[in-house]
Amino acid sequence: MLLTHATLATMTDGYGLIPDAAVAIDGDRIVWVGPMADLPAPLTQADSIDCRGRLVTPGLIDCHSHAVHAGHRAVEFELRLQGASYAEIARAGGGILSTVTATRAATEADLLASALPRIDQMIASGATTIEVKSGYGLTVADEIKMLRAARQIGDQRQVTIRATHLAAHAIPPEYAGRARDYIADVAIPSLWAAHAEGLADAVDAFCETIAFSTDELAPLFAEARRLGLPVKLHAEQLTDQHGAGFAARHAALSADHLEYLSPEGIAAMAAAGTVAVILPGAFYTLRESQSPPIAALRAAGVPMAVATDLNPGSSPMASLPLAMNMACTLFRLTPQEALLGTTAHAARALGLADRGRIAPGLRADLCLWNADHPAELSYRIGATPLHARIFGGHLDA
Ligand code: NIG
Ligand code: FE
Question: Which of 38, 124, 152, 314 has the lowest tally of Cβ within 10 angstroms?
């Protein structure tokens, strides 16, 4: 397959723009990229798609989602608008735990069926790789059920699913006041089970006053390392619990949220090469006031990714272009940083070296947009200017 007359944002060096470009694809791989004028003659024989100047980017990568879950939390949305805080609702037994109740009651088939329409929205917004977390089961069986549902999405849709075992997301009522016992009895055994079944690509946790401390999480991260699984962490979302530094010391792929990240946390992330995953949907939904320290992350050279954080509580949002718009307007990322955040840097946050840029040898996951400049993807509010998507060398029907 050959794409011709594309305005190409390769994301190899900033936007890596090539005007009037061609991309040749063989099987599921990109084999040639460059200006039309340089296209080798033998490649012109391939089936070609004339992009007519349209912007072509790498397929978007959503590196943080909770797309598998049961139920919704619209009533909590109403409560928060009346003044209740996310933490207050959580302490009263709502929040994550209300989704846990619904998710425990759901079957694997129920979870898959309710996730697919959300995944379809993500795909329609340009996603070709989606990370999906567990974390609403909080028993071994219910965590495994969530991860199996996540894996099944990849068989049902033209998208790569990366499954993250969010082993320590909240303390379930039966372990109230016994966080360490939860880690020993449930989080670590569920990690063994997930690993044995090949269900986990990474391990995650929520480090927060309403969830777990770094001390409580240390045995879980040690076990992940022993199994050879990379870690990620929800860190510094509502308060500074020194989670990012802890994650970086465990060579984490990413630390996510980071509104209350300290200078020490930034330095630790920079030293470890840990990606900062920026989640403006949760900041917006919870009407937070403290932004993540974007300028300091930029100055320290910490790569920033941007994701939807699609979940029923803090970020009921499926669109990566909307997350990019919010990252720019709320947090002052540049549109170039926002697009790097949903392509090259998002790939890195998932430990994937074969995607996120447009270059020979990489996976042929591409988006063709009804746009002619890459900043348009961040500039429009809630728009989905996707013209077509190519996944693993196949054009979506
Ligand atoms: O990434 N911060 C913790 N976890 C999710 C929210 C989950 C929920 O509220 O259901 C997040 O924002
Ligand atoms: Fe999250």
Answer: 38
Confidence of residue 120 (pLDDT cuts 50, 70, 90): very high
Task: Output the residue whose Cα is nearest ligand 1's atom 1.
Answer: 309
| Summary mean pLDDT of the chain | 97
Fold classified for 60-349:
TIM Barrel (3.20.20)
Q: Which amino acid is residue 15, in one-letter code?
A: Y
Q: Which of 311, 315, 317, 326 to mutate to test the pocket of ligand 1 (most atoms within 8 A of CB)?
A: 311
Count of other CB atoms within 10 angstroms of residue 79: 17
Among 277, 257, 259, 276, residue whose Cα is nearest residue 268 = 276
Q: What is the pLDDT of residues 173-186, one digit of tens each?
A: 999 999 999 999 99
CA of 249 to the centre of ligand 2 (A): 20
- From atom 6 of ligand 1, which residue's Cα is the shortest distance away? 314
Structural class in CATH, domain 2-59+356-396: mainly beta
Q: What is the pTM of this model?
A: 0.98
Q: If you measure from the C-alpha of residue 393 to the centroid of ligand 2, how many angstroms do you get, rounded to a whole number?
A: 30
How far apart (Å, rounded) are the C-alpha atoms in residues 387 and 119? 18
Q: What is the pLDDT of residues 43-95, one digit of tens each?
A: 988 789 999 999 999 999 999 999 999 999 999 999 999 999 999 999 988 99
